[in-house]
Amino acid sequence: MSANGFEPGKLLLLLRHPGNSRRLEPADDWLYGVIGAAIGVAGFALWAWAEQSGIRSTLSFFGSLLFSTALQQAIVGELIWLGILSIILLTALLAIAGNRMGGRKRNWMEAIAYCGGAQVWFGAAFAVCAIVGLVLWKVSLVLAVVLLLLDLNWLTLQAMELHAVEDGKRLQFLCTVLGIYASLMALALSGLF
Could you tell me the pTM of the whole model? Predict the structure, then answer.
């Protein structure tokens, strides 16, 4: 935590300008990275709950019973764990690959501050997507996919800049990180569902 204590204004600044996460001082501001990652996961979980509620509201009584039985109300909790696993896994992969392929080495505190701090906007965007999901669940589903791809793109670009990955190694960096990430997330999803 910074010498001035917790400053909510820093979170608002990260919400408006996610790139400012690179300006955090990891030794003092690592907590903003943790809070940012938590906001991202909370927004994702809120969206999952709203999406489930939105789908259920469009079904008939019997369809709603069948839907509830099939999902057993546990899907939101499982998606929270999936969100936590996703951000930890992606942060770790970006840090490891960045330290191996980049010109600038970063420690774990820096990875947490920079990647986590960049998630504040993601959580807020998913909260808005959750509101849409209560009314228009199909539109919300499309928005969620777009947000997930946008966030993945944003974090990989941030990591390449932070680690000073050279132009000649960027494709290798992306293929390595995204290939391992997609494989591990597919394993996690197959065990989840």
Answer: 0.76
